[in-house]
């Protein structure tokens, strides 16, 4: 690829970008930013009210809005199929769907059904989305896939075994798949935020939140808008020679 300083490769002109988990928090901020940078944004989430609000804000037609529970494999297949039918292609996927699961719970006291649900949403959903989208990206010999992991997937947080497991698994998944997809022109990376001020953390125990913030040298939680800036780069043509990597946005908690 020849560098052309007259071209802004961080823009999404003529691109179709799917944002999963778009109704609030990081996903909403990313969808809004990417839309304002020129993409036709398709938003999906299991929260219809949040989707409706964002669709109105971004002036999206009905076929760019999908209610989706990523822990349902058949639903994932159907939504990706519908998007391809309506829009012909998917240039980038941003997957920020996730749940915290049980927090401040000792590993011997965990509820297995809740443990499994965390894995279904945070890990299995990401795998199913990737499986469904890859064939379409291979046809166009181009694609960007961004999965939201967590600093917990690198370092672990006490009392959050299900979440730690799901995010560590996601990081490992991205590493291996990246090596498979590189020859096809498809870039896939993960992003590992530290604790971010979003509705997702409303169910995290106060003790756990205090622990996580105490580990951040900047001494504060991150903002969804800060995370969105990195996501927008990762999903854009500008991210052209980095794949299989886990970007950090951790306020200095992680420096590796």
Question: How would you sum up this structure, described in words?
Answer:
By secondary structure, the protein is of the alpha/beta class. The chain has a single domain (16-249), classed as Rossmann fold. It contains 8 helices and 7 strands; from the N terminus they run E-H-E-H-E-H-E-H-E-H-H-E-H-H-E. Strands 3-2-1-4-5-6-7 form a 7-stranded parallel beta sheet, sandwiched between helices. Helix 4 (112-140) links the parallel strand 4 and strand 5. The longest helix has 29 residues, at 112-140. The two termini are 28 Å apart. The relative contact order is 0.16.
Give the secondary structure arrangement, pairings included.
Layout: E1 16-20, H1 25-36, E2 40-45, H2 48-58, E3 65-67, H3 73-87, E4 92-95, H4 112-140, E5 143-148, H5 152-155, H6 161-181, E6 186-193, H7 206-214, H8 224-235, E7 246-249
Parallel strand pairs: 1-2, 1-4, 2-3, 4-5, 5-6, 6-7
